[in-house]
Design goal:
mainly alpha
């Protein structure tokens, strides 16, 4: 099966774990040594609202290629009616788009691009 044929939610499922791993490693590298604080700081990055915000910034800055935008749009447009109570459906779909993109890039062996996207996101927070 080609990566582009994989269900968008499956790509997002994988992308979510990769994204969270980057965030956790970043926070640990910042010298945060207490688990409670690590969790509190991680939420700033991993919430659907934050992920949607970072994706919108990348779109606004034309940071994503046409291929990447196609993956995001496919995930964003995936038919779903469920979403967390903590956000609206549009925010959730944008967050899913970002996660699907990361999953897609990982499965396509584009690890350097995942690094670039995560650097964009994590450096955004440092500014």
């Amino acid at each position: 099966m080609k990566v582009v044929e994989i269900n968008s939610l499956v790509l997002a499922y994988l992308g979510d774990t990769i994204y969270e791993n980057y965030v956790r490693r970043f926070l640990i590298a910042q010298g945060i040594a207490h688990v409670d604080r690590l969790q509190k700081e991680a939420v700033k990055f991993v919430s659907a609202k934050s992920q949607a915000h970072y994706l919108q910034k990348m779109i606004d800055k034309k940071f994503l290629s046409e291929e990447e935008m196609a993956v995001v749009k496919r995930a964003r447009n995936y038919k779903t009616t469920s979403h967390p109570k903590s956000c609206d459906i549009i925010t959730y779909k944008y967050a899913t788009g970002l996660e699907a993109l990361i999953g897609y890039l990982d499965l396509s062996n584009q690890k350097n691009r995942v690094d670039e996207i995560m650097k964009f996101i994590l450096e955004e927070e440092l500014c």
